[in-house]
């Protein structure tokens, strides 16, 4: 992500505005390269430095498809990508308005997902690769 002012990180906590001690640790995040300046506590950072969060569904898939959609929108995260292995598709939520994302763009096998401009890099991710974990 050289030259974009962004960094791709794993295991970095996102401080959520919904409750005083509410946070999430996305599977993958694209953050501003100076995200450490937005430290809140422990390994949690203010939401304004997150450009994209990515979740890959597992046994708790409903959290990624429902609860986190609401939480990330309320935190004003510009883009949320869900790799929905249970239903075999990738969902891209972007541009939250008044604490809610519009309906997601849905991508099925055989196509690629273009990352939104808010991420700061021009990249397309193959849905097959995302779903298969390659």
Structural commentary:
The chain is built from two helices and twelve strands; from the N terminus they run E-E-E-E-E-E-E-H-E-E-E-E-E-H. 15% of the residues lie in helices and 36% in strands. The longest helix has 14 residues, at 61-74. The strands form three sheets. The chain has a six-stranded mixed β-sheet. It is of the alpha+beta class and 134 residues long.
List keywords for this structure.
134 residues; alpha+beta; 6-stranded mixed β-sheet; 4-stranded mixed β-sheet; 2 helices; 36% strand; globular
Report the mean per-residue pLDDT as an integer. 91
Radius of gyration: 14 Å
- Termini, distance in Å? 20 Å
Which regions have little confidence, pLDDT < 50, spanning 5+ residues?
Answer: none
Strand order of the largest sheet: 1-4-7-8-9-10
- The computed structural class is alpha+beta
TL;DR of this structure?
By secondary structure, the protein is an alpha+beta fold. The chain has helices at residues 61-74, 127-132; strands at residues 6-9, 13-15, 23-24, 28-32, 39-41, 44-45, 50-56, 79-84, 89-94, 105-108, 112-114, 124-126.
């Amino acid at each position: 992500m050289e030259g974009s002012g962004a960094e791709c990180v794993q295991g970095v906590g996102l401080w959520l505005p919904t409750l005083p001690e509410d946070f999430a640790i996305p599977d993958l995040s694209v953050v501003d390269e100076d995200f450490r300046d937005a430290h809140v506590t422990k390994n949690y950072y203010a939401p304004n430095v997150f450009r994209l969060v990515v979740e890959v569904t597992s046994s708790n898939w409903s959290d990624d498809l429902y609860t986190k959609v609401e939480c990330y929108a309320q935190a004003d995260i510009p883009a949320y990508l869900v790799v929905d292995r249970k239903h075999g598709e990738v969902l891209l939520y972007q541009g939250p308005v008044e604490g809610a994302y519009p309906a997601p763009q849905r991508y099925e096998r055989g196509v690629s997902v273009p990352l939104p401009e808010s991420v700061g890099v021009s990249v397309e991710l193959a849905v097959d690769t995302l779903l298969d974990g390659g």
